[in-house]
Amino acid sequence: MRAPIGDFDDARPATDCLDLLTPPVAAAVRAWTGPVPADRILYVDTDPTIADTAVFVEHHGPELLEQSANCVVLAGKRGETTTLAACVVKSGTRVDVNGVARKHLGVRKARFAPMDTATGDTGMEYGGITPIGLPADWPLLVDATVVDTEWVLIGSGRRRGKIIVPGKAFAQLPHAVVLEGLGLPQA
User: Fold this and answer.
1) Is the pLDDT of residue 51 over 90?
2) At 68, phi and psi to the nearest 5?
3) Closest by alpha carbon to 91, among 120, 62, 118?
4) What region holds the YbaK/aminoacyl-tRNA synthetase-associated domain (predicted)?
């Protein structure tokens, strides 16, 4: 099947590709419920050497910048307590870490989590982290523009492969909070 966005000729329901996903992502797809059916989560095989957004968009076309999102892991601190959270913003933007995200999490300091924390705690590969399959107790902050996008390309949990999901599905993920202004224009 042809993907609804991008130049991917071989899009398949992620439910048919569970072996290509990391265990937490596969488990989340297997357990998927809600208004967007699981068969609307599509998997496309991609080259892991071009997984980073700028290179990926250069290879697959600039229109994907508006149709793709990044999921980043933040570590927020208040006193001795550290809170890990994920933020999903359009690929052409950056997370408002010290504004919207920090305030929503109620922490004094927020920063990107160290790579070993992000990958170790999610069970996903750096450069492929996705909000589908995150630890159950993590807050998930989603920029409203992502939810308002018809189809969104995002990581699959691995550097190889991406998933394409209806934007409205991000609002149905566990602990998801949709926020205006979470994604800021790139500097």
Assistant:
1) no
2) -130, 160
3) 62
4) 63-169
Q: pLDDT tens for residues 29-39?
A: 999 998 999 99
Distance from the first to the final alpha carbon of the chain: 37
How many residues make up the chain in this entry? 187
- Residue 136 tokens, joined: 């159950």
For residues 8-25, give the mean pLDDT.
95
Closest C-alpha to 42, from 120, 156, 139: 156
Domain boundaries, the chain: 11-185
Q: Position of tokens 């990926």?
A: 56
CA pair distance 29, 51, nearest whole angstrom: 21
Of 163, 182, 183, the C-alpha closest to 45 is 163
Class of domain 11-185: alpha beta
